[in-house]
Amino acid sequence: MVGDVYRRDTIDATHFPVFHQLEGVRLFNSQQLFSKCEGASADLTLFEVGDETKDKQSCHTLETSKLLEFNLKQTIEDCIKDIFGKEAECKWVDAYFPFTHPSYELEIKYNDEWIEMLGCGILRQEILNQAGACDQVAWAFGLGLERLAMKLFNIPDIRYMWTEDESFLAQFRCHSDFKSIKFKPIVSKQPALVNDVAFWVPTDFTPNDFYDLVRSVDDGLVQTITLIDQFTHSSGKQSHCYRLFYRHVSRALTQAQVNEVHGKIKRAAVKHLNVEGRWGGESTCSN
């Protein structure tokens, strides 16, 4: 199943507050899970009354959990290697998700950095029980399609996924095999224009409040935001200073264009986030 996901997140080249996710679930009954086990497989059972550990849920036997984990990881790895080739670098990381246990993340090497590609794990048995599948167990995964496409076609910036620029869209039409697509970057080679903004924040403020606001008014021009400084005044007031990197995905920007958007962001922050501007401490530069 594929659907839209809305999530408060940082702002950089690989994160966006809206993305598309593919969800998958595979169910097993006792015969399906244990059929390939050597030896006395008839003695193996899916369930037990036990304790939850890092390796299993309280209602699952250790054999159930380990076989599900093996099948899940093998299936995902085979899929990734089929898409990206056998040379693709990937690794598994233990994780936490509320609907699975144990849980894992698969990371793929992208531009010399490890980037999370998907989350997965053994589906919580309570979910299956509520769905009427009390005699079955399952694994599940969620795969972000934008990150998959970025890795597959070496797309440098997630904002491309929302552009209507024909020079980008035309590269993905009329291909019978997606593996034949050779993406040609159209990102501007001009340096990013960098503006800082500082303000006093209310006690209930979080950085994600500011990130959400920027994405609502920036016209897609902000590539990255970094919290570069924060301190608490002797009066108890807390200050945040953010550095905003402005770069269009396909054309150069002028400082005047950036200043206009930057002004919109400052005014919106004061109006909607109840912050107090410290505009005298800002700087403007190129990077």
From TrEMBL:
The enzyme's E.C. designation: 6.1.1.20
Compartments in which it is found: Mitochondrion matrix
Residue span(s) of domain Aminoacyl-transfer RNA synthetases class-II family profile: 1-185
Superkingdom, taxonomy of origin: Eukaryota
UniProt keyword annotations, A-Z: Aminoacyl-tRNA synthetase, ATP-binding, Ligase, Mitochondrion, Nucleotide-binding, Protein biosynthesis, Transit peptide
InterPro entries: aa-tRNA-synth_II, aa-tRNA-synth_II/BPL/LPL, Fdx_antiC-bd, Fdx_antiC-bd_sf, Phenylalanyl-tRNA_Synthase
GO biological process, one term: tRNA aminoacylation
UniProt xrefs under Pfam families: FDX-ACB (PF03147), tRNA-synt_2d (PF01409)
FDX-ACB domain span: 188-278
SUPFAM superfamilies the UniProt entry points to: Anticodon-binding domain of PheRS, Class II aaRS and biotin synthetases
Catalytic activity annotation: tRNA(Phe) + L-phenylalanine + ATP = L-phenylalanyl-tRNA(Phe) + AMP + diphosphate + H(+)
GO MF terms held by the record: ATP binding; phenylalanine-tRNA ligase activity; tRNA binding
A Gene Ontology cellular-component term: mitochondrial matrix
Similarity comment text for this entry: Belongs to the class-II aminoacyl-tRNA synthetase family.
Protein name as it appears in the record: phenylalanine--tRNA ligase
